[in-house]
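Obj.: predict assembly geometry.
Materials: sequence records (below).
Method: joint structure prediction, all chains together.
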Amino acid sequence: NAGVMQNPRHLVRRRGQEARLRCSPMKGHSHVYWYRQLPEEGLKFMVYLQKENIIDESGMPKERFSAEFPKEGPSILRIQQVVRGDSAAYFCASSQTQRGNTEAFFGQGTRLTVV
Amino acid sequence: AQTVTQSQPEMSVQEAETVTLSCTYDTSENNYYLFWYKQPPSRQMILVIRQEAYKQQNATENRFSVNFQKAAKSFSLKISDSQLGDTAMYFCAFMKQHNAGNMLTFGGGTRLMVKP
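Observations (raw structure tokens):
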């Protein structure tokens, strides 16, 4: 059973371009969480999705950022018109249920560098 | 809103010695979970140990144990018999106990260096 798969591992974008980060949850997991880790900081929650639904996007910047988790395929975190401040590691986690007694498993992250 | 504070940005310990990493948190919730995660240079987030707030007994996992003081809102991690492979960033994290998702609030991390 493969773990949470994120790709690409590294992504370089020029200012103003779009970044698309993909996350395939563990098999049987229908709950996905995205986090952002700025250099030398802890992870910050961005958005929580279930299949085809955004459940909680309280940590998502209001502009340029969007996320989806379609019925088929991976979850996508999309950043439009990237700026230098978007440079960070973006982590995805998945869980089998939304209950706290189930573990959330993390992917290895995507490191986004904006040049 | 919850906050998690790790007051030690960096720590070091000699191999085979014991080290304790500190974590405090602030919440108005009565039921919640606390976690310690390890992040080695590979960036993979690895769950080290978890504690349910309603349990008085401190959680242990092999060489890792916690000192959970609910009234003081303190959750420290003790690593016994430190090994070189324990070198990593360690993050303390909080999660509400509810059925509305497993969102974690993380502290800023402690960088642990185990010296030979």
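Conclusions so far: The radius of gyration of chain A is 13 Å.
To do: check interface contacts against the pulldown list.
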